[in-house]
């Protein structure tokens, strides 16, 4: 569904005939693919040496821009909390969905002036995407830190009685406060050990106030209980609790600190909400920008490889094929037969041993015609980077 093939073939008598021939073969006659003309403007050719070096550099730039584009999509998914369908709706370029942008591709003359050399256009794209990647790192670190701090506080508010924040559980009346001699401890005990606790707690040390233990909270697995005793035996009491597998919480009732903790949680929640909207907007805009840059790199690669393959004057037709389901193998066979006259090395199809200097450098697949695969599934974790 998301796989497209971007190819080019030399003009026969005219480029229009090249298009008609391909369309008749794959779309009308065999129903193998849906095809679109891929419009590439009249770019500056430059020298052969420049084209050969640029071919390799564009391969690296292609991988880099795709990687950053997918990073943006992946992080947008994280921020949207991985709602896959919601994510797809937000992944657009030029105000339209990715398939529409690709199938109706128009070169952006304002961003990438065709009067510039091919090398300069590639450098413009590289600098643009590099800046986006740097900004993404800064923004994601800040948001992730905020989100992590909030999650830690939320875990403390809802987690196990051994670790959770007790501010919403206990009350002032649960404690003996401002006493010179007495203190109240909070103890977590397994629920099925409650009877054992009731039998033992008064005798774990001397100076425990009889019948002072109260159940303050039950989370289903454990109980939070209070016990009042003399301060001087508190350390000994804690020691004997550990021996009996009763866990004493390190907690001091302090209203100001408890209010501050609640305020911190509220503040982090408000900060996250405040940052969420602008961050999603930034990610959507820059994903679209990087995706568009990526397709422009594909156009540059097609142009450069076509000139290297088919020579001057520039005379080739770039075409975008959307293979029909389960038709990729037949489509490849038909294309190989149809264009076999272009290169004898490709008569046998894809030959990994083929190594032609200056042609398809960095490509693992070589065919008689210029070929690039484009995977538009931004949620595909197996996509090639």
TrEMBL record:
Q: Give the Gene Ontology MF terms in alphabetical order.
A: proton-transporting ATPase activity, rotational mechanism
* CC annotations in GO: lysosomal membrane; vacuolar proton-transporting V-type ATPase, V1 domain
Recorded hits in InterPro entries, A to Z, give: ATPase_V1-cplx_csu, Vac_ATP_synth_c_sf
> Any idea which UniProt keywords this protein has?
Hydrogen ion transport, Ion transport, Transport
Q: Which domain of life is it from?
A: Eukaryota
Q: Which SUPFAM superfamilies does the record match to this protein?
A: Vacuolar ATP synthase subunit C
Q: Which family does it belong to?
A: Belongs to the V-ATPase C subunit family.
Described purpose of this protein according to its UniProt entry: Subunit of the V1 complex of vacuolar(H+)-ATPase (V-ATPase), a multisubunit enzyme composed of a peripheral complex (V1) that hydrolyzes ATP and a membrane integral complex (V0) that translocates protons. V-ATPase is responsible for acidifying and maintaining the pH of intracellular compartments and in some cell types, is targeted to the plasma membrane, where it is responsible for acidifying the extracellular environment. Subunit C is necessary for the assembly of the catalytic sector of the enzyme and is likely to have a specific function in its catalytic activity.
How would you summarize the oligomeric state and partners of this protein?
V-ATPase is a heteromultimeric enzyme made up of two complexes: the ATP-hydrolytic V1 complex and the proton translocation V0 complex. The V1 complex consists of three catalytic AB heterodimers that form a heterohexamer, three peripheral stalks each consisting of EG heterodimers, one central rotor including subunits D and F, and the regulatory subunits C and H. The proton translocation complex V0 consists of the proton transport subunit a, a ring of proteolipid subunits c9c'', rotary subunit d, subunits e and f, and two accessory subunits.
What is the protein name stated in its UniProt record? V-type proton ATPase subunit C
| Organism placement in taxonomy | Eukaryota, Metazoa, Spiralia, Lophotrochozoa, Mollusca
Q: Which gene does this sequence derive from?
A: LOC115217330
